[in-house]
Design the sequence.
């Protein structure tokens, strides 16, 4: 029997289970750049308008760290700059999550065993999962090419954009295939995959913002900007992605053929025969289940904040000799110091990252319920609100902790760089912590979804992606105010120590509490369903 | 005293009816068998009793309280072993046993150690590396090591090997002597037969029979197998004889319990050289019941 037997049937199975999810990813990932390009065409059609934009953001290392460099003044190049890196990260997340979902998760759930005993080759599940997601990347690339070219942008640039996204998908599909072999749990595989993506993102940030440009060349995320769509395409960069994808995918197969079904390459350890004192109530259990992720995410936030804090020093330098430009820039950001604007943007990035943590942590409720692991706890003396609260506790305090860490690290790195440690530390802690109420609104919304629509709890991710889009491009694309105001992040953006507004903070905290209470009440009154 | 009182219970999942007027009465101190084929509504009933699901109609009372509204109070007084045990992948078996015991409000350390030994369970393995049977043992030890009033067991031996299954029976028989109430859902009839005082048989979300094993047997027949030397046609036509079959000199038949005497005296005239007779196993009872039911429907 060939090790690939049954692959086509498995592809059918993956599509049957996840067609809706795939279509959602494809629409989001192809839609964002096209919508952005379209809006840029309308708003910045005149070259003079674009010149202002580029003068403000281009060649500024701090913004290069966030978004990558601007290579050209064309609409296409600006689109690639504004949405390229964020889009790349989202594409990579889709690839990692979807591959793990259909390989390691299936194995962990024991369903692979059921299939493995039929005429399904050893490598068929991996091949099917990877083919489907590479296919999705190909469709996204095609839609991007057609869509961007359809807007009248340069065809070669549109093709480079699409091909770059498709090649990037392939790289992270292969990476997902590898991490799925390494660990025996899907959660650990996702953690590892996202960790590697984080390193790739930071390498690119460092490479784009500092003199060490070579760092960007060892990051697949960096390759997308270095392909330079709409700015004198360097086609050979595509070869790097494709080559890496092939090598990484080959190692996934090599690992897969050297391990047993259900096992990872990394060994599983034995545990204690008796529970520690702390493992005695619902909160103790939730802490045990959540602590590794909380530690990992906190570390990630700290590293990200350190990078931002370090490059921020360049913001003042660059504009120091040009007060007029500095004024224009400050007007655009609405803050009186350039670095304020920069930190307001970085704080909102940190807020999005911690919101993602908070949502995944709150979604653990549904995962536990679905895996029948809520029941053994709920049929002890633990009341429903207590069990739900035990996980939500970490979804609420996790972001607080991480934003505090982010502010601390940014303040410490930036403060020591500019020699004003005592001043910058509290200032930046205030800027990042001011984002917390907005993050909590998403936490509350996830809790409400869990109570009201348990089978649709994952919709919380859709909410985050929508807010990400609004926040990242809404301002630049001049979306109407009412639309921007729908996002809680709009109301916390630009809050500083000197400019702390109590009202929006109070309203957001109240809203998040209200949503959480709805969630608690609804869960109290519904069936526990797998 | 009544430990579990369920009457006319109704539960629908969307348009699918899971329970359609189910009745169940379990007295305090008895081991009650809850029998039914797959998908008949056993687990749904239990999940309502545990306060995980809310019934759409009828009443359910557990230890005198309402399973939905008084859930946490009740849960201190009961322990549950599901048929499909799902453990946290990165918690060891020992940690799960301790945790669940503490969440319930206490664990008997001596019992825990003894049960681990009896079930031959290694508590240091992580949840993800246990087999189905071992996961079930973790849940069994967690439930049995507590001194609760009511044990609810949902097909608890599905993954156990015969050795462990007999150990399980021994443990339950000891529980019986401590005046604890046990609700044992099963489709393994020999298990129910070996352990239970009373049984309720359900099908399609409805109770079709309930009573002590003796009562149920009374309605039923005795199976007889005999080696005879003479012609057996005299047995044919005797009141209460069914399913008469003859192979060479070996005769097998079933006889209604109230006609057993006359039939045996007739049989003894045929030169019996060997005789095996046994009361109907629950297996036979069960099969006959379902055959009739499906014949009717």
Sequence:
């Amino acid at each position: 029997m060939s090790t690939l037997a049954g692959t086509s049937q498995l592809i059918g199975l993956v599509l049957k289970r996840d067609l809706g999810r795939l279509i959602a990813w494809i629409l989001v990932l192809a839609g964002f750049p096209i919508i952005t390009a379209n809006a840029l065409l309308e708003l910045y059609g005149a070259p003079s308008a674009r010149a202002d934009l580029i003068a403000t953001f281009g060649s500024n290392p701090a913004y290069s760290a966030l978004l990558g460099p601007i290579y050209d003044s064309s609409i296409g190049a600006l689109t690639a700059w504004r949405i390229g890196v964020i889009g790349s990260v989202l594409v990579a997340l889709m690839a990692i999550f979807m591959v793990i979902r259909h390989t390691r998760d299936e194995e962990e759930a024991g369903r692979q065993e059921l299939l493995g005993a039929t005429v399904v080759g050893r490598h068929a599940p991996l091949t099917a999962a990877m083919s489907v997601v590479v296919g999705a990347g190909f469709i996204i690339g095609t839609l991007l090419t057609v869509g961007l070219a359809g807007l009248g942008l340069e065809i070669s640039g549109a093709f480079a954009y699409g091909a770059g996204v498709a090649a990037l998908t392939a790289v992270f599909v292969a990476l997902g295939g590898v991490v799925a072999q390494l660990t025996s749990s899907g959660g650990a595989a996702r953690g590892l995959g996202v960790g590697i993506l984080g390193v790739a993102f930071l390498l690119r940030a460092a490479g784009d913002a500092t003199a060490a440009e070579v760092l960007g060349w060892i990051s697949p995320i960096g390759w997308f900007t270095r392909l330079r769509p709409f700015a004198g395409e360097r086609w050979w960069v595509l070869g790097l992605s494709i080559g890496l994808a092939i090598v990484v995918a080959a190692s996934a197969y090599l690992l897969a053929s050297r391990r047993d079904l259900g096992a990872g390459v990394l060994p599983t350890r034995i545990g204690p025969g008796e529970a520690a004192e702390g493992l005695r109530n619902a909160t103790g259990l939730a802490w045990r289940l959540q602590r590794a992720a909380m530690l990992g995410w906190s570390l990630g936030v700290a590293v990200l904040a350190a990078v931002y804090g370090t490059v921020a020093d360049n913001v003042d330098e660059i504009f120091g000799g040009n007060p007029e430009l500095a004024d224009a820039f400050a007007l655009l950001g609405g803050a009186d110091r350039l670095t304020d604007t920069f930190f307001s943007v970085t704080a909102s990035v940190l807020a999005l990252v911690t919101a993602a943590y908070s949502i995944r942590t709150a979604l653990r409720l549904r995962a536990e319920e679905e895996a029948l692991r809520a029941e053994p706890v709920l049929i002890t003396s633990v009341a429903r609100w207590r069990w739900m609260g035990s996980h939500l506790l970490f979804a609420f305090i996790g972001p607080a902790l991480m934003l505090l860490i982010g502010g601390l690290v940014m303040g410490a790195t930036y403060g020591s760089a500019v020699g004003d440690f005592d001043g910058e530390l509290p200032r930046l802690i205030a800027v990042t912590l001011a984002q917390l109420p907005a993050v909590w609104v998403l936490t509350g919304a996830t809790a409400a979804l869990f109570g009201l629509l348990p089978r649709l709890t994952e919709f919380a991710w859709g909410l985050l992606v929508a807010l990400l889009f609004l926040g990242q491009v809404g301002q630049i694309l001049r979306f109407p105010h009412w639309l921007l105001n729908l996002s809680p992040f709009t109301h916390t953006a630009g809050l500083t120590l000197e400019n702390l507004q109590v009202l929006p903070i109070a309203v957001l905290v109240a809203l998040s509490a209200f949503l959480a209470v709805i969630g608690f009440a609804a869960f109290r009154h519904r069936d526990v369903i797998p | 005293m009544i430990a579990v009182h369920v009457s006319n219970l109704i539960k629908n999942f969307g348009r699918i009816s899971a329970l359609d007027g189910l009745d169940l009465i379990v007295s305090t101190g008895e081991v009650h068998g809850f029998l039914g084929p797959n998908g008949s509504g056993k687990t749904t009933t239990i999940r309502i009793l545990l306060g995980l699901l809310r019934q759409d109609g009828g009443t359910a009372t557990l230890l005198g309280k309402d399973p939905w509204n008084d859930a946490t109070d009740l849960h201190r007084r009961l322990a549950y072993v599901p048929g499909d045990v799902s453990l946290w992948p990165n918690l060891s078996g020992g940690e799960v046993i301790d945790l669940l015991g503490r969440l319930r409000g206490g664990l008997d350390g001596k019992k825990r150690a003894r049960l681990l030994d009896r079930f031959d369970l290694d508590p240091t393995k992580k949840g993800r590396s246990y087999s189905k049977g071992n996961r079930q043992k973790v849940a069994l030890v967690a439930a049995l090591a507590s001194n609760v009033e009511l044990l609810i067991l949902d097909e608890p031996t599905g993954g156990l090997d015969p050795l462990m299954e007999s150990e399980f029976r021994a443990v339950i028989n000891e529980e019986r002597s401590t005046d604890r109430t046990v609700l044992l859902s099963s489709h393994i009839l020999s298990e129910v037969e070996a352990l239970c005082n009373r049984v309720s048989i359900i099908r399609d979300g409805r109770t079709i029979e309930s009573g002590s094993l003796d009562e149920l047997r009374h309605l039923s027949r005795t199976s007889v197998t005999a080696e005879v030397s003479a012609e057996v046609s005299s047995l044919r036509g005797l009141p209460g004889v069914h399913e008469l079959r003859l192979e060479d000199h070996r005769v097998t038949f079933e006889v209604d319990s109230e006609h057993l005497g006359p039939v045996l005296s007739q049989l003894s005239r045929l030169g019996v050289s060997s005789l095996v007779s046994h009361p109907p196993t629950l297996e036979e009872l069960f099969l006959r019941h379902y055959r009739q039911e499906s014949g009717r429907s």
Q: What stands out?
A: Chain B has a mean pLDDT of 86. Chain B touches chain A at residues 47, 50-54, 71-73, 75-76, 78, 80, 82, 84, 86-92, 94-100, 102-105, 123-126, 128-129, 139, 142 (CB under 8 Å). The longest strand of chain B covers residues 2-13.
